[in-house]
Every structure is written in structure tokens, then in C-alpha cells.
Specification:
By secondary structure, this protein is an alpha+beta fold. The chain is built from 5 helices and 10 strands. 35% of the residues lie in helices and 28% in strands. The protein is globular.
Length: 182
């Protein structure tokens, strides 16, 4: 009887630990800018928040031959946040799928952000000298060195990788040929 009771307690603890570790909600963006937003909704949100340093249409680029759009902001030179530098918002088919934020290293350091993220979201799912990664089915969230935060919508990102019609450049082809000869 004691063995079966301890087995059930151990099993319950094991399931609880795994349930909570896999159901972790990682951030899906920064402030009011969230993955999955439309291009227009993102522009409106950026205009309402001066921390990003968004100046309107001049910060928007279209990638020729694709359904991809990029908004690049410069918070450092303007009326933006002291903590943000450059930010990039990548869209495909009118959906925000990658947010990249460079953080001002003069105002805050990697270790402070890393410690804060670990306290808030637990230990990273992957960690190496270049970056810490927290990943769920929906989102990949990274803190990269020297000091960049990146939010990626996994489903949209994977679909763009699987259906990419971009061919390797001549430089990439010759690099592959060189590496094959090693």
C-alpha cells in the first residue's frame, strides 16, 4: 500500500512538473507590439508609443518579389526610449512574425536582462555563449549577445522557411561548394 501511494505521489509530481514546464507562456512581443498583428495595426501601435522611435512610412521597406514587409525604427536618434536602439518588425502576408529589438548597452547589460527573464519565465530551453532561447510551440524568444531581444512566431516562420522561393545567391553557392570540399 505504501509503495503504490508513493508511486502515485511521484507520478503526480512528475506530471505537474512537465505540465507546467510545457505550458509556459513566453512573451509574444514587447509592450503593445505583438506577433500576429497586421501591418496597419502595428503601425498604429508604433505611432502611439514613442519608445520605438517610429517616424511613419519612411521607416517601411518592401522586399521585392515577396509578400514581405519590414518596418525599421531608430529609437536612439529621436524621441524614443533610452533603453531601445534599433528595432525591426518583419511581416509576411500582412502578419507580424519577427520582432527584433537592439537594447542600449550603455543603459543596461546582458546579465541583468538574462536574470530578469529567468526569474520571469524560468530557465531557457536552450543556452549557449551567443544566446539564451525560450521556446514553446507558438513562440521562440531569444536574448542574443551583445544585447538583442528577438520574438519569433514559430508557425509563420516555419511556413516561410518551408515555402521559400528565394534561391541561394552565387556567394552562398560557392561557399557551399568550398565547404563540401573540406
Amino acid at each position: 500500500m505504501l509503495k503504490s501511494k508513493s508511486f502515485f505521489i511521484s507520478f503526480f509530481l512528475f506530471c505537474s512538473i512537465h505540465f507546467f514546464s510545457f505550458s509556459q507562456d513566453y512573451p509574444k512581443g514587447y509592450k503593445n507590439i505583438l506577433l500576429g498583428m497586421t501591418f496597419e495595426d502595428t503601425k498604429i501601435a508604433l505611432l502611439k508609443d514613442s519608445d520605438f522611435g517610429y517616424h511613419g512610412e519612411r521607416d517601411v521597406s518592401l522586399i521585392p518579389g515577396t509578400n514581405k514587409t519590414l518596418i525599421e525604427t531608430d529609437a536612439q536618434y529621436g524621441h524614443g526610449s533610452n533603453f531601445l536602439e534599433r528595432c525591426w518588425f518583419q511581416f509576411t502576408n500582412d502578419s507580424l512574425y519577427i520582432i527584433t529589438i537592439n537594447v542600449n548597452q550603455e543603459k543596461i547589460d546582458y546579465y541583468t536582462i538574462f536574470t530578469t527573464l529567468c526569474n520571469k519565465y524560468g530557465n531557457p530551453t536552450d543556452f549557449n555563449p551567443q544566446k539564451a532561447t525560450w521556446k514553446s510551440d507558438e513562440v521562440t524568444f531569444t536574448l542574443e549577445k551583445p544585447l538583442t531581444l528577438k520574438y519569433i512566431d514559430n508557425k509563420i516562420f516555419d511556413s516561410t522557411q518551408n515555402y521559400s522561393n528565394i534561391q541561394d545567391s552565387p556567394v552562398e553557392i560557392t561557399q557551399k561548394m568550398f565547404l563540401d570540399e573540406l
